[in-house]
Amino acid sequence: MRASELDPAQFEDIRPYRDDEVRQVLDRLIADPEMSHAVAHLLLPKLARLEGPVAWLVRQFLRFEFRKAWDVRGVQEVVEKYMDLVVRRTTSEFTISGLHNLPRDRACLFVSNHRDIAMDPALSIVAMFKEGHETARIAIGDNLLTKQFATDIMKLNKCFTVKRKAGTRREKLQAATQLSNYIYHSIVNDNEHVWIAQRSGRAKDGLDRTNPALAAMFAMSKDKQTSFADFWRQLHIVPLTISYEWDPCDAQKARELYFTERKEEYRKGKHEDLGSIAKGVVGQKGHVHAAFGTPIEDDFHDVTALAEEIDRQIIGNYVLHPTNLIAYQMVYGEAPDLPVGYPATPWNPREHEETRRKFEERMENIDERWRDKAIQGYANPVVSRLAYE
Predict the structure, then answer these.
(1) Of 63, 66, 30, 60, which is closest to residue 152 (Cα–Cα)?
(2) N or C, which end of the chain is more exposed by having fewer CB within 10 Å?
(3) For the chain, what is the radius of gyration of the CA atoms?
(4) Is the backbone peptide bond immediately before 346 cis, with ω within 30 degrees of 0?
């Protein structure tokens, strides 16, 4: 399919907000009581219980902060300040590598591992923003759009919708085709970067693997004359890896895995994903690293081969933390001789006794029924690295 043949009107129900919609949406967002409540808990957690006066103060503050925001870029300039605040409060260090690999003259499709609902794309965009790159459009599931204020925040920040709730087989095919066309249109027509997770949902078990069906979805926009390898090159695919020393949602993920593996029905609460977003944003993460891979330019002629190359880069660029080696040792008895941190340093367990104490204490506070799942989740990045050594 040629990029010029894609009609932007077909994307109306999934696209982010346009510049000409920003001011009206901002005014609605600032007036939303739930927005004031959420911001109060982020900025004034000790006073947030004083609902009335604090909510009024927050609304005045938001009006002042966004007074000059009349387009998406203006919104993101304000948001970037508060993402910096989140990074300072919740990480011990945020490091970045590989940005020099990105071309300056064309858009890329970032295929990322997925550990945190909001922070994965947010931290990637902060990294790009700081280095003067244009920010990316972000693929998010419609399961996150359960509250208007959350929907507005996301769509103001260039998020577009992945329709996970499509019912019949025909509806799912239509949704996948629309998504494929929108990604292709964004990159080729609009020259806009796109961020998408390597598979649906977070890697709750700590195993980062690309679903080949994702690559098949990308290719739904391909015309019959174009080879798979040439099509991937048109999309300028760049694998992206985010690694966290500490996962604020580790116990929650382990609990879900525990019930799912026992074939007990796990029903998420109506707004559970929004709760996970909040926990992921405000929770302590320790050292976080964002690693941008190299654009995929080689000849990969099928979706499985492409998925394997994405996995090779994501796993190879994953920064292992002491928590990963400590967990591996707890599970398997001995930690391998792999470097940790960024810049990488040799693993010396004697240098990380305080981290070990903290990790063991953290695991002790997790329900014993799914504690092993949590430990394995930290150990699995080491398992993945060893498989690719």
Answers:
(1) 30
(2) C
(3) 21
(4) no
Separation between Cα atoms, residue 112 and residue 240, nearest integer Å: 4
How many angstroms separate the Cα of 132 from the Cα of each of 67, 78, 121, 226? 23, 16, 17, 33
Which H or E run contains 291? strand 286-292
**pTM: predicted TM-score of the whole model, two decimal places:** 0.93
Q: Give the angle 372-374-378 at the CA atoms, nearest 5°.
A: 110
Contacts of 13 (CB under 8 A, 6+ apart): 161
Position 218 pLDDT exceeds 90? yes
DSSP letter for each residue of 18-43: -GGGHHHHHHHHHH-HHHHHHHHHHH
The pair of structure tokens assigned to 56 is: 């009024």
Q: Quick check: 192 and 128 in contact, CB under 8 A?
A: no
Bridge partners (DSSP) of residue 138 are 159, 195
d(Cα 250, Cα 365) in Å, to the nearest integer?
A: 11
Please write the tens of the pLDDT for every residue from 72-128: 999 999 988 889 989 999 999 999 999 988 988 899 999 999 999 999 999 998 888
Amino acid at 234: Q
Q: Which of 158, 83, 88 shows the shortest CA–CA distance to 127?
A: 83
Phi-psi region of 201 (alpha: psi -120 to 50; beta: other; left: phi over 0): left
Cα–Cα distance, 194 to 187 (Å, whole number) = 7
Provide the CB-side half-sphere exposure for 349 (13 A, CA): 13
Alpha helices of the chain — where are they, by DSSP H? 22-31, 33-43, 51-65, 72-90, 119-130, 148-156, 169-184, 212-218, 228-235, 250-261, 272-282, 303-317, 322-332, 353-364, 371-388
For 106, the token pair is: 């064309």
CB neighbour burial string for 98-136, b if at least 16 within 10 angstroms, e if fewer: beeebeeeebbbbbbbbbbbbbbbbbbbbbbbeeebebb
Contact 115, 278 (CB under 8 A): no
Retrieve residue 389's tokens: 């050594």
Residue-wise pLDDT tens digits, 260-310: 888 766 566 655 666 788 889 989 999 999 999 999 999 998 999 999 999
Distance from C-alpha of 293 to C-alpha of 295, rounded to nearest angstrom: 7
d(CA 279, CA 79): 18
